[in-house]
Design goal:
The complex is a heterodimer of chains A (about 120) and B (about 375). Helices cover about 15% and strands about 35% of the residues of chain A. Chain A has about 120 residues and is of the alpha+beta class. Chain A has a single domain, classed as Beta Barrel (OB fold (Dihydrolipoamide Acetyltransferase, E2P)). Chain A is globular, with a radius of gyration of 13 Å. Chain B has about 375 residues and is α+β, with helices and mostly antiparallel strands. Classes of the chains: A alpha+beta (about 120), B alpha+beta (about 375).
Chain lengths: ~120, ~375
């Protein structure tokens, strides 16, 4: 098991203590196609669950990324400024988007584990 | 991440080559009532670059093809479009626009005068407009035979296109730009024109739907050829500065402000005799209040269709009608309309994107130079 948690909007969370690393899943990056720009939030921004966290621009369209849980942005992936394609190439590692300090860690339980997410993908 | 746009309500028509697209790993999307390949596995950037470097194969069978036939058809069509159709030699093709009574663009199209004794014009129109165009033409020109064609249409574009097609249809490689020839191969002919909408040399090949599969498979066997979807087609035409109907052209826009005055025949500028001549003649004489221009966003984020452009003094002076990311130039590019006094390369304008102000400079078109096949010094 990867230990990742997933939302139905195709974001993932990797819990590192009180902080969650947030990115989009491999399925999501494939759906978006070639990513050319990632608009990341400012550090310190507080987001509610379901609120806008980032905007990913592919060649053809802009897509919003929603916060899977509430929290405060404590770090963003500055490498994406020069290399937005990292989200395509390594969405689960080098292509992460932001780190959130969790406001309510219990919210994690509302997300899917990997087996549930894989099952969810099969329904699409 | 947001869901993909809602699917259209009406059932989607399938292309004759639908199964081939799916077997090539296409991601399909609804467009103009058709289930169309948006991109293949390699993606929009790679498909765009492949077309610029080698040859891209596009299924554009959703577009409308029709023949207008009968003595006097060329003169009669001049009553609907501003191009010189009477002066079109057999086997030659011209770009023009169907115009409304007020000179607005109802669609843009290619017109070819077919060789032969009978006076016949082959028309190729946009998919989203074909039903309306065909009804309009049949109603306006009832004395002629108007025959919509059920044929597949495949575009092969890029610097290697001539070599690829010439190997399958010998002689095609020598066809001049903007000309047309029928190749008789068995039971029905292939119509080949040296045209396209990418800025590259290339061809559009029309054939009976039941002949398309073998032909496309033969082209795809050549390692220089890759299938290319609608996403890259849009990027290519934007890089080439070519306007897209429904985005950069519409019924409110006349050909002069759209930067298409070059397609209005010299004789027709003085004679008129096409819809909207009062407006278009005045625009040719006095200039238009607004003009289509290239736009270079000074940002890493693309500026999209619908963005409002303001001048240095904050006055609204235009809007973006197409915008995206150029795979060839690796930066955002766009086109739109701006007031005449700002329609000069280098003029700094601005727009707002997600709360931030972004500089947008007026830029010359095309962004990527055209590389059409020219057989003489004058050009076609």
């Amino acid at each position: 098991m990867s230990g990742l948690k997933y939302s139905k909007d195709h974001e993932y969370l990797r819990i590192e203590g009180e902080v969650a690393v947030v990115g989009i899943t491999d399925y999501a990056q494939a759906q978006l196609g070639d990513i050319v720009f990632v608009d990341l939030p400012t550090i310190g921004k507080k987001v509610t669950k379901g609120g806008e966290l980032a905007v990913i621009e592919s060649v053809k369209a802009a897509s919003e990324v929603y916060a899977p849980v509430a929290g405060e942005v404590v770090e963003v992936n500055a490498e994406l400024g020069e290399k937005p394609a990292l989200v395509n190439e390594a969405p689960l590692s080098g292509g992460w988007l932001v780190k959130l300090r969790l406001e309510n860690p219990a919210e994690i339980e509302t997300l899917m584990d990997e087996a549930a997410y894989d099952g969810f993908l099969k329904t699409l | 991440m947001t869901a993909q746009p809602d699917l259209e309500q009406a059932p989607l028509a399938r292309l004759p080559l639908d199964a081939i697209h799916r077997s090539l790993g296409a991601r399909m999307a609804p467009f103009a009532g058709y289930d169309m390949p948006l991109q293949y596995a390699s993606g929009i950037v790679s498909e765009t670059l492949h077309t610029r470097q080698k040859a891209g194969l596009f299924d554009v069978s959703h577009m409308g093809q029709a023949i207008l036939a009968g003595a006097g058809a060329a003169r009669a069509l001049e009553g609907l479009v501003p191009a010189d159709i009477l002066g079109l030699a057999p086997g030659r093709t011209r770009y023009t626009q169907l115009l409304s009574e007020s000179g607005g663009i109802l669609d843009d199209l290619l017109v070819t005068r077919l060789p032969g004794v009978e006076e016949r014009l082959l028309l190729v129109v946009n998919a989203a407009r074909k039903a309306a165009d065909f009804a309009f033409i049949a109603e306006r020109l009832p004395q002629f035979d108007f025959l919509p064609l059920n044929r597949a249409l495949i575009a092969l574009q890029g610097p290697r296109a001539a070599g690829v097609l010439g190997a399958l249809l010998p002689g095609a490689e020598g066809l001049p730009f903007m000309s047309w020839r029928a190749f008789d191969e068995g039971v029905s002919s292939f119509f080949v024109s040296r045209t396209g909408y990418t800025g590259e040399d290339g061809f559009e090949i029309s054939m009976r739907p039941d002949r398309a599969e073998l032909f496309v498979k033969a082209m795809l066997q050549n390692p220089d050829v890759a299938p290319v979807g609608l996403g890259a087609r849009d990027a290519l035409r934007l890089e080439a500065g070519l306007p897209l109907y429904g985005h950069d052209l519409d019924e409110a826009t006349d050909p002069v402000e759209a930067g298409l005055a070059w397609s209005i025949g010299k004789r027709r500028r003085t004679e008129g005799g096409f819809p909207g001549f009062a407006r278009i003649g005045a625009a040719l004489r006095d200039g238009s209040a607004r003009l289509r221009v290239g736009l270079a966003p000074q940002s890493k984020a693309p500026v999209r269709e619908g963005a409002i452009l303001v001048s240095q003094s904050g006055e609204i002076v235009g809007n973006v009608t197409s915008g995206g990311f150029s795979p060839t130039l690796q930066r955002p590019i766009a086109m739109g309309y701006v007031a005449r006094e700002h329609a000069r390369a280098g003029v700094p304008l601005a727009t707002e994107l997600r709360g931030s102000r972004i500089g947008v400079d007026v830029a010359p078109l095309p962004f990527v130079a055209h590389r059409y096949f020219r057989t003489d010094a004058k050009g076609a």
